[in-house]
Amino acid sequence: MQQKSFVTSLLCASVLVLVSSCTPNPQVYTIARSTPADKTPETLGDRAQDFIGGMGLKKWSERDYKQFASEKQYIETFAEPAMKEMKRFGVPASITLAQGILETNAGKSNLVKESNNHFGIKCHDTWKGKSVSHDDDAAGECFRKYKNPLDSYRDHSQFLTSRPRYASLFDLEPTDYKAWANGLRSAGYATDKAYADKLIRIIETYDLDQYDAEALGQRKRYLNRLSRKERIAEALKATKDKIAETTQRTKRMGAEAADQIADASRGLAHRVTPGDTLYSIAKKYEVTIEAIKKMNVLNSDALSIGQILEIPRSK
Predict the structure, then answer these.
(1) Global pTM?
(2) Residues 277, 294: contact at Cβ < 8 Å?
């Protein structure tokens, strides 16, 4: 009997444990509804993509560059920005990437760590931003400093497109990276006589011209959109000008009509015939002589055959 009681108690205990284990934890739903905290991107490529998407990259510092270990990692990080610059400004992405690799030693140079300057652009007279001193052709030269690498990429595009000495580059085929590399050297971008050869070697080693082909399609679509926008803008301007012209003409016609109505409201017109006098005319239209003289600005009673007189309305 005691054994049966023990078994019964054991079964009851098991049921209680089972029931309690099936009872929902009230925190489960809270956990399910909660949003996990955003994770910091693990790679520089992720950070660059975040910035491109407007997701929060604000500044890069020296610690960010510690992660660069190879040219391949540099390319993976900045291929997309380079293509975006080609799409908008026409500078080949291969040239931009090769210059970035060469000028920064693939993200490992002291200059890039201190300034985010990926293209070795010096201050020049027009620079109003921050700067750093760095030894180059001479000791302590002034180099531009940027908040992040993408500001440097944008300034590089604007630097090339805004300076007359680089204008001839944009007459070259955008996929002719050899001509671009030699053109940069000829235009004086760098003092290194082997600068063009170094760029070409980097481009061919890492097949950077593949990014030119991809970005070129983007640029054509971009320019087509700009062209369509320009045509639409021109059409809208022509329409606005036509409306303005029509409005002015309508206003002018309205003013002329108002003048004619005003003239008609003042009275009639009378052509002087032989035998007419101011007295006979005034009597005919039942107005006074003085009213006729005043409306026609007459200083005497003399009239001429064929003269047109405005006749005021009779009261």
Answers:
(1) 0.57
(2) no
